[in-house]
Write a structure and sequence with these properties.
The complex is a heterodimer of chains A (about 210) and B (about 140). Chain A is α/β, with parallel strands linked by helices and about 210 residues long. Chain A is built from five helices and eight strands. Chain A has one domain: Rossmann fold. In chain A, helix 1 crosses helix 5. The radius of gyration of chain A is 17 Å and the shape is globular. The N and C termini of chain A lie far apart (about 50 Å). By secondary structure, chain B is mainly alpha-helical. The relative contact order of chain B is 0.20. The chains are: A alpha/beta (about 210), B mainly alpha (about 140). Chains A and B meet through strand 1, strand 2, strand 4, strand 5 and helix 5 of A and strand 1, strand 2, helix 3 and helix 5 of B. Chain A: Belongs to the GPN-loop GTPase family. Chain A: Pfam families: ATP_bind_1 (PF03029).
Chain lengths: ~210, ~140
């Protein structure tokens, strides 16, 4: 399972604190922004989202009308000439008038059609990496390298696997020096928050200041 | 309303709906850049809510898109008693994102759904917003 972090089974929109004040006031909406969590199948995207989300991660689906390739995992369910792409997402109310969404999205190249839409307006992307299947993150890296969106690489360290230093991973992935690489644990909230902070820091680095 | 957004078994891509299966489909060109005909921007994180109390909703104009997909429309408007993101509407109603965006766009164009946010959702967040997010994350 991609997602194994939930012990909450209290309905489709279980919020650990009940409805937020901003949800019930239709006269105004909070500022909202998003971060994309990209990576291969089973790398821990939904676990990552679930570790920090105030709601049990929700799943939304987009329909791709022409499947060009064989389908290799259950995130994409083939249906003749359509493929359904599932995205799990979570939400964090950072202030009463500021909400951050986290969207986990499968990394395969055939889903790029969706990403152009998904990344519009995003702070940036966390490319989640499993060192046992490094190649799974290549398409996501290719996409973000060419797209100009701020991104960082987060190695989701699985217990019982070899732990690599960030610089080793950087070299293996031929990452530019300015792209942050960190080793984290998608199950641990504090390391997930650190990862998000690293991305926001990176985005600030390359966002022009007021002139 | 015009017939531009085509959902479900309508148009050249029509297929018979098997029981219990979601077959709603949307022509990819019915929305461009997340923008509806009247310029509402509907990104996955965009907030929407019902404009009026859903119980006071008028009946939809016969023949329009909304009339053909009444149950879905009613479900969306009902869910939007609270502020919801586009993605939340899709997930909670188990409707594909593309379908939800077309229906929300239509409802927004009719004034039944309010779409929040500036029209400038295509750019990246500015420094002020990034700094607020940074502070917020540090407080977690």
């Amino acid at each position: 399972m991609d997602y194994a972090g939930s012990d909450t089974t209290t309905g489709p929109e279980a919020d650990h604190q009940g409805p937020r004040s901003w949800q019930t006031d239709r006269s105004r909406a909070p500022a909202v922004t998003k971060i994309v969590i990209a990576g291969g199948f089973g790398v821990g995207k939904t676990t990552f989202v679930g570790s920090v989300s105030e709601i049990t991660p929700l799943r939304t689906e987009a329909v791709m009308t022409e499947a060009g390739e064989a389908v290799d995992d259950f995130e994409a369910v083939p249906d003749k000439d359509t493929t359904t792409v599932a995205m799990d997402f979570g939400r964090i109310t950072l202030e009463s008038d500021l909400v951050l969404y986290l969207f986990g999205t499968p990394g395969q190249k055939r889903f790029w059609f969706m990403w152009d839409d998904l990344v519009r307006g995003a702070i940036g992307a966390v490319v989640l990496v499993d060192t046992r299947r490094l190649e799974d993150c290549f398409p996501a890296l290719d996409y973000f390298e060419s797209g100009g969106l701020p991104y960082i690489v987060a190695v989701n360290h699985f217990e019982g696997t070899a732990r690599y230093e960030p610089e080793v991973v950087r070299e293996a992935l031929s990452l530019p020096a300015q792209v942050p690489v960190l080793v984290m644990d998608a199950r641990k909230r504090i390391t997930v928050v650190d990862t998000l902070l690293t991305l926001v820091g990176r985005a600030l680095e390359i966002t022009p200041g007021r002139l | 309303m015009t017939a531009a957004p085509v959902i479900s078994a309508v148009g050249p891509v029509a297929r018979a709906a098997a029981p219990g299966r979601r077959t709603a489909r949307v022509r990819p060109y019915s929305l461009t850049g997340g923008r509806t005909r009247f310029g509402h921007v509907l990104l996955v994180e965009t907030f929407v809510a019902a404009s009026a109390d859903p119980d006071e909703e008028p009946a939809p104009a016969p023949g329009g898109l909304a009339a053909r997909v009444m149950p879905e429309v009613r479900a969306i408007v009902g869910l939007c008693r609270r502020l919801r993101s586009v993605a939340e509407v899709s997930a909670l109603l188990k409707m594909p994102l593309g379908v939800v965006r077309v229906l929300l766009g239509d409802l927004a164009d009719q004034g039944r759904i309010r779409v929040y946010g500036t029209g400038d959702a295509t750019g990246r967040p500015d420094r002020a917003l990034l700094e607020r997010v940074q502070s917020g994350l540090r407080r977690l």
